[in-house]
From TrEMBL:
Gene3D superfamilies: 3.30.450.180, lambda repressor-like DNA-binding domains. It comes from the Bacteria. SUPFAM superfamilies: lambda repressor-like DNA-binding domains. InterPro entries: Cro/C1-type_HTH, Lambda_DNA-bd_dom_sf, MLTR_LBD. CDD domains: HTH_XRE (cd00093). It comes from Bogoriella caseilytica. This is Helix-turn-helix protein. Residues 30-81 form the HTH cro/C1-type domain.
Length: 291
């Protein structure tokens, strides 16, 4: 671990960002052009003291999970992310195995979406990043590990919890869409890919998935109209729009309500409910909490 080089790299990358780049207001009395240390710490859900020690070349070696979050917050490219890992004494993640690093262009858009649910998914339906409204609506799933990271796996293996946000009459359609999208990913990535392994595992463990897989449906939805159910606010009618990276490995989903609709009022209430829950959530004594 090269503490001095890591500290310098973090400081320079922090100072290169502007508040607007990460969805923050610059404020009136601002003495620095870039982000403040406390702003980076807040966005990464770690203590200011811990992050400050990293920039001073002090403290314990950061975990790979923490580096992943910092790479997202600092809008690092894949090469910059890999460099950050090596400075911190870790091997860079294998890009061929299905990368959890959020594409900076999608992250920049997500950072500007404060008043509507939005999240970034991998092509295995893993939630890589989400704003507070998406977490309030779908649940905070960005920190999950293993097979349960995939929304497809959760849909078919943890169905009661995962499907609660959809009306019963819409669940079959949603399940078919998830399977069709996974088949498209398998076709793009190949038979030896993590996508193919996921499909094979789900065929083995879920009779429903196996039945839908045998329908041979292939496709990705780039826009849709959904009725999503919140336990306190009830059904919310939203339009869903998808924006993908060029290689289709990541997709930004944005859920919007029609102007002056009941759903628009529900999203405003959801924002209040979501922030109240996050404010009440206990923190980790170690200073880090997965987002």
């Amino acid at each position: 671990m090269d503490r001095s080089a890591l500290a310098s790299f973090l400081r320079v990358r922090r100072e290169a960002l502007r508040p607007n780049d990460v969805g923050l207001s610059p404020g009136i009395r601002r003495r620095v052009a870039g982000l403040r240390r406390e702003e980076v710490a807040h966005l990464a859900s770690m203590s200011v003291d811990y992050y400050s020690r990293l920039e001073r070349g002090q403290g314990a070696q950061p975990s790979q999970q923490m580096l992943t979050v910092l790479a997202r917050v600092l809008h690092l490219s894949l090469d910059e992310r890999d460099y950050l890992y090596r400075l911190a004494g870790h091997h860079a993640p294998d890009r061929a195995s299905g990368d959890a690093h959020v594409a900076p262009r999608l992250q920049r858009i997500l950072n500007r979406l404060a008043d509507t649910p939005a999240l970034v998914l991998s092509d295995l339906a893993e939630t890589l990043s989400q704003n507070h409204l998406a977490a309030a609506l779908f649940g905070d799933v960005a920190g999950l590990r293993g097979l349960e990271r995939s929304g497809v796996a959760r849909w078919f293996l943890q169905s009661e919890h995962e499907r609660r946000v959809y009306r019963e009459q819409d669940r079959n359609r949603q399940g078919r869409a998830l399977v069709a999208a996974l088949r498209a990913t398998v076709g793009r990535r190949g038979p030896a890919s993590p996508a193919a392994e996921l499909a094979e595992e789900l065929r083995r463990r879920s009779e429903e998935f196996s039945r839908l897989w045998d329908l041979q449906e292939v496709g990705t939805r780039y826009e849709d109209h959904k009725v999503l159910v919140h336990p306190e606010l009830g059904p919310i009618e939203l339009d869903c729009q998808a924006l993908s990276t060029e290689d289709q490995s990541q997709t930004l989903l944005v859920f919007t309500a029609a102007p002056r609709s009941a759903a628009e009022e529900q999203l405003a209430l959801l924002s209040v409910l979501g922030r109240a829950r996050f404010a009440a959530a206990p923190g980790d004594d170690g200073g880090f909490m997965a987002r």
